[in-house]
Design goal:
The structure is a homodimer.
Chain A (H helix, E strand, L loop, with lengths): L13 E6 L2 E6 L17 E2 L1 H17 L5 E6 L4 E3 L1 E2 L1 H5 L3 H25 L2 E6 L2 E3 L1 H7 L3 E5 L5 E3 L2 H5 L7 H8 L4 H8 L5 E2 H6 L5 E3 L4 H14 L17 E3 L2 E3 L3 E6 L4 E7 L9 H7 L4 H19 L5 E7 L2 H13 L4 H18 L4 E6 L10 H6 L2 E6 L4 E4 L15 H5 L4 H9 L2 E4 H7 L4 E4 H17 L2 H11 L7 H17 L2 H4 L4 H4 L14
Parallel strand pairs in A: 2-4, 3-6, 4-7, 5-8, 7-9, 8-10, 9-12, 16-17, 17-18, 18-19, 19-22
Antiparallel strand pairs in A: 1-2, 10-11, 13-14, 14-15, 15-16, 20-21
Helix pairs in contact in A: 1-3, 3-13, 3-20, 4-6, 6-20, 11-13
Chain lengths: 540, 540
C-alpha cells in the first residue's frame, strides 16, 4: 500500500529551506530509502517515494509559504544534479506501475509549471553536475536552467540510446514544444548517451545560462533574486496543510468528506463526496481562519488522495461511480464565496488546486460514471465531477436536480485549455453561453435536454439501467477502454500538456510493452548487466 | 511483395462510374480475392488490397476526372455498406503490418478529405445498410453521411466491445473532433456493439441525413447534385496517370527518377532522387502535354511508391538515406513553373500531391538522414526532403549548395498545418521570413549557419562522420526510435490529422501489443470463435 501523504518534517529525500522570498528545494536522495526494497537510489536518482515528497513540497510552498517568489531546485550532492528515474526500479516494475509512475511524475512537473504561471513562484534548476534523463526533464519543467560550466557536467536524455525507451516525463515534448529546440538538434541530442555540455548546450537552447563552478552558487542566487523581484502581488500569511488522514477499513477508504468504497467482485469503486454543510465560512477572514479545514480545499484534497490511492493501490478496479450527497444550495453558496473572493491569494490557490484535482480525474484511466440521485449535490464545482465523467446518469424524479455556477464558466480548465462545458459542447459553443447565462437548479429532465447529463432514466428502469451499464462496462477490455477514454475525453485543441499525456505517453506506454525494452534481452532489462540487448529489428 | 500499383481496369473490389460532374465509387468486395490467402472478405469488409484500390481511385478522380465535383461512395451489395477492416486478416497479421495497414488506410481517408477541401470533389457516404467499424470510419471521412432509415440498418464502432481494440482509422478522433459529437454520447456509442439506427444516429450527430429505403438512391443523387452545384471552378480535361512501373533488381527498386537501394546487412536504404533535366516544359500547355511524365509529378509519384514499398516490404530497414542528384538551377526552374501556374487545376493537383507525399515521408517510421553532397540538388521542393529528414548532413565544400524557393513558404504544409521551415524555426519565426526573403543558392556552411542543415562536415571527416552516425542510429532500439521520431517531428500545433497519427494511433499500437487483444485468450484472437476472451483486469 503506497502512502501519498507526507509533510516537510517527514521528507527523506528533500530539504526545503526558506529565506524570505527565496526557497531552496534541495534534492538529496537517501540511497538506502527506496519506496520498496530491491534497488538503491544512487546518484540522486528517484522513485515514486522521492516524487511524492516533491509534489508535497511544491504544494506546500503555494499554500504554506505564499511569500516565496523564486524556488531554486538544487542538488545536495556534489557534481550531480539528478540522474533521473531509477532504472533498476523501472526494470523491476510491472507495466501498470511504470505507466502510473510516469503519469504522476508528469503531473508533478506540470504542477511546478502551474506554480510559476499561476502563483508567481518561479523555479530555477541549478544543475551543478550530471543532469541525466528524468533529471534533465525535472530541469525542463523549471522556468530557467543554469548549468555549471566545468568542461565535464552534461545534460542528457540517454533513454533511447541506453535503455531503449523514451524519456518518460515530458522530455521530448518540452524540448521541441516548450523550449522549441530545433527538431534535428533535438534528434541528435536525444540519441547522444553522453549528452551535451557547456556552450553547445547553451547554443542549442537546452539550457538558459552557464556559470563556472567558482561562481555557480552566486549566479544561481542572483537569478533567483532577479526572478523574485519581478513578482509583486502581496500574499500570505500561509495556511498549514493538515493531513487528510484517510482511515482504511476493509475495502473502504474513509475521509472526512470522501469515501472510496471498493467492490472487488464487480471491479467497481464508488467515490462519494459529501457537499458542504451550512457551517462553512462566508467571509474571507473566515475562509482564512478555516484554512485546510475549509470544505472546498479539504474535500478536493481528499478526492485527490483517493484518486492516487485508486490508481496505484487498486489497479483492477475498472469503473468508478461518482456520487455526491448534500445540499445543492450549500454547494452553490460555497461557489459564490469562491467567486466573490477569487482575487484573494488563498481562494485563488484553492481554485487552482481544484483545477489540478479535476485534471487528475480527467487523466485517471478508469471509466467514470456519475450518478445523480435524490440527495445528490452536483452543483457548480461539484458538477465538474459529472462533466469530467465519461457518462452521467440522472434519476428522472422531481427532487433530483443539478446546478451550474459561475465557476463552471472557466475556473477549472482541462488540459486542453477549455472548460469542461466548452469541451462538451464543442459543436454548439452557444449552448455553453446559454447554460451559463441561466445559473441555478434544473431538473434531471431539463439537464438531459440541455446536454448536461447523458441520460435521465425514470424510476422504474433506473436501477436495472445502471446495473447493466456498469456490468457491461466492467466486462470490456481494460486496455481498449483506457485507449478509448484517452481519445474521447480531450476533444478540441491540444496543448503541451495534452501532448505529453496523449502523444508522448501513449508512445512510451507502447514501448514499455515491447520486448525490445522489457523482454529478456531488452535494453531496459539488461541495463547495468554485461550482456548487450538483442533487438527485433522490425520497425513499426 | 505487396504491389501498390493498380488502375481502374484492374480493380477487383471497386467500380467507378462517372456521369458528368458526379461519380459513383462502388464498393463491391470480392470475397474470394483477399490480398493473401487465409481469410474471406465477407460483408464488404476490406484488407490492404481493397484500400490500395480506393487510394488509387481517389487519386485518379483528381487527376483523370477533374470535372467530377461530387463522389458518391456507395456499396454494391444489398443491405450492407461496409463491415470495416477484415477481422480475420487483422487477427492473423503481425504487429508491424497491422500498424502500417492502419497508417495507410488513415492516409487514404485523409486523401478523401483533402480531395474535398482542396480539389472541390465532395464525398457523400451512401450507407444503405450495415455500416460497421472501418465502414463507419470510411463514412466519417466523407463530407456527408446519409443513412438508410429502415428500422434495421445501424452504424457502429464495435471494436472496443467485440475485439478489445480501438477503431483504427481515425474513428474516435473524427467523432469528437470532426463531427464534434458530445463525448458522453461518443462514449455510449463506442461501447455499443450493435450501434445506433435512424433518428438517434441523426440526433447525436453521427450521420447527417436519413432516407427511407424507397427513396434512398434518389435522396443520395439529390444531395450529390446539390453538392456538385456548389463547386464552380472550371477544371479539365484530365490527364492519364501512367504506371510508375518500378523495376526490381535484387535489393534495388529502380524507377525513372528514383532508386531505392537496400543494404540489408546495415539495415539502411538509400533513396536517391534525380532532379529535373533541362527538357522539362516551361509553359502551361507543355506541362499539360507532359502530364504524368512531367518531372514534378512523376518523381514524387515514384517517391510515394518507394515509401510504401519500404514500409510494407522492407520492415527491417531502420535508416533511410536521402540523396538527390541533378542541377539546382533546373530544380529551381521547375519550382518557378509550379509557382507561376499554381492557379491552374493540374499544377495545383501536382502541388497537392507533392504535399501528400511529403506528409507520407513525415509519417514513415524510419530514421531519415539527408546527405547533401557534390552534385546534389536539394533546392525548393527537393529541399523539403531534407527538411523532412530527422537530420541533414552537408559536405562542407565549395560546390555543395542548397537553395530555397517560393514553394518552401507554405506550399507543402505538414500535418500540423505549418510549413517545414516554420516547424523547424518554431523558436524564431523571423528566421523563416529571412530565409524566404533571400531565395537562391547558399553554401553548406551558410546553410548550417542559417539552420537549414544540421551540420556541415569538412571533407576530411565527412565519410567517417556519416558512417558512424548511420551505424549508431541503426544500432538503437527500433521501437524507441519510432516513438522518439513521432514526438520530435511534429512540434507546434496539433490538428485532427496529427491527433489521428499521434494520439489515436499510438494508443491503438499499444493496444495491438497487449495480450488482452492479441494474446491466446485476447478478444481479437478469439473473435468468431466460441470461447470468450479472458482479460487481465489491470488498468494501465
Amino acid at each position: 500500500m503506497i502512502n501519498f501523504e507526507t509533510s516537510r518534517e517527514h521528507y527523506r529525500h528533500w530539504k526545503l529551506h526558506i529565506d524570505g522570498e527565496i526557497a531552496s528545494l534541495i534534492l538529496d536522495v537517501q540511497e538506502d530509502a527506496p519506496l520498496r526494497p530491491g534497488y538503491k537510489l544512487k546518484l540522486n536518482s528517484y522513485d515514486l517515494g522521492v516524487d511524492i515528497e516533491l509534489a508535497d513540497a511544491v504544494q506546500r510552498l503555494r499554500f504554506e509559504h505564499p511569500e516565496v517568489r523564486a524556488v531554486v531546485l538544487q542538488s545536495g550532492k556534489p557534481n550531480v544534479f539528478c540522474a533521473g528515474a531509477n532504472i533498476f526500479m523501472l526494470g523491476s516494475s510491472g507495466h501498470a506501475f511504470k505507466v502510473n509512475f510516469c503519469k504522476f511524475t508528469n503531473e508533478t512537473r506540470l504542477a511546478i509549471e502551474d506554480a510559476s504561471r499561476s502563483s508567481g513562484q518561479h523555479y530555477i534548476a541549478a544543475c551543478n553536475g550530471t543532469t541525466a534523463g528524468g533529471g534533465y526533464e525535472l530541469a525542463l519543467a523549471c522556468d530557467e536552467i543554469i548549468l555549471v560550466d566545468d568542461g565535464n557536467s552534461a545534460i542528457s536524455l540517454p533513454e533511447t540510446a541506453l535503455l531503449g525507451v523514451l524519456p518518460g516525463t515530458g522530455g521530448l515534448t518540452r524540448l521541441v514544444d516548450k523550449r522549441k529546440v530545433r527538431r534535428d538538434r533535438a534528434d541528435v541530442f536525444c540519441t547522444l548517451a553522453e549528452g551535451l555540455r557547456g556552450q553547445r548546450a547553451l547554443e542549442w537552447g537546452l539550457v538558459d545560462r552557464l556559470a563556472p563552478r567558482s561562481r555557480f552558487n552566486e549566479a544561481v542566487r542572483e537569478r533567483a533574486r532577479e526572478r523574485a523581484s519581478t513578482v509583486t502581488a502581496p500574499k500570505g500569511p500561509g495556511i498549514r496543510l493538515s493531513s487528510v488522514d484517510p482511515e482504511l477499513r476493509g475495502d473502504k477508504a474513509c475521509y472526512r468528506y470522501v469515501t472510496l468504497d471498493v467492490d472487488r467482485a464487480r471491479r467497481t469503486a464508488t467515490l462519494s463526496v459529501i457537499g458542504p454543510d451550512p457551517g462553512q465560512p462566508r467571509t474571507l477572514d473566515g475562509i482564512h481562519a478555516a484554512g485546510a479545514d475549509y470544505w472546498a480545499l479539504r474535500a478536493f484534497r481528499e478526492i485527490d488522495h483517493a484518486l492516487l490511492h485508486l490508481r496505484f493501490n487498486e489497479p483492477e478496479i475498472g469503473v468508478v461511480i461518482l456520487k455526491t450527497q448534500g445540499h445543492l444550495e450549500q454547494a452553490l453558496r460555497v461557489d459564490r464565496s469562491l467567486s466573490e473572493f477569487q482575487e484573494d491569494w488563498l481562494v485563488r490557490e484553492i481554485l487552482l488546486f481544484i483545477k489540478r484535482t479535476l485534471k487528475r480525474l480527467d487523466l485517471t484511466s478508469r471509466t467514470i460514471f456519475a450518478l445523480i440521485e435524490p440527495g445528490s449535490c452536483f452543483a457548480g464545482t461539484l458538477l465538474e465531477l459529472a462533466l469530467a465523467a465519461d457518462r452521467s446518469y440522472a434519476l428522472d424524479q422531481d427532487d433530483v436536480r443539478v446546478a451550474v455556477s459561475q465557476l463552471n464558466g472557466g475556473s477549472f480548465p482541462m488540459s486542453n485549455g477549455l472548460s469542461r462545458l466548452q469541451t462538451r459542447f464543442l459543436a454548439n459553443p452557444e449552448r455553453t453561453r446559454d447554460i451559463l447565462a441561466k445559473p441555478g437548479l434544473v431538473s434531471a429532465r431539463e439537464a438531459e435536454q440541455a446536454g448536461l447529463v447523458t441520460v435521465a432514466v425514470d424510476e422504474l428502469d433506473y436501477e436495472d439501467h445502471i446495473r447493466v451499464a456498469v456490468e457491461e462496462r466492467a466486462s470490456l477490455s481494460p486496455d481498449a477502454l483506457t485507449g478509448m477514454e484517452a481519445n474521447l475525453r480531450f476533444a478540441g485543441p491540444e496543448t503541451m500538456e495534452t501532448k505529453i499525456f496523449g502523444r508522448l505517453s501513449a508512445w512510451q506506454n507502447w514501448i514499455f510493452t515491447r520486448p525490445n525494452a522489457v523482454g529478456a534481452s531488452g535494453a531496459l532489462t539488461l541495463y547495468g548487466k554485461p550482456d548487450r540487448p538483442a533487438f527485433d529489428w522490425n520497425r513499426t
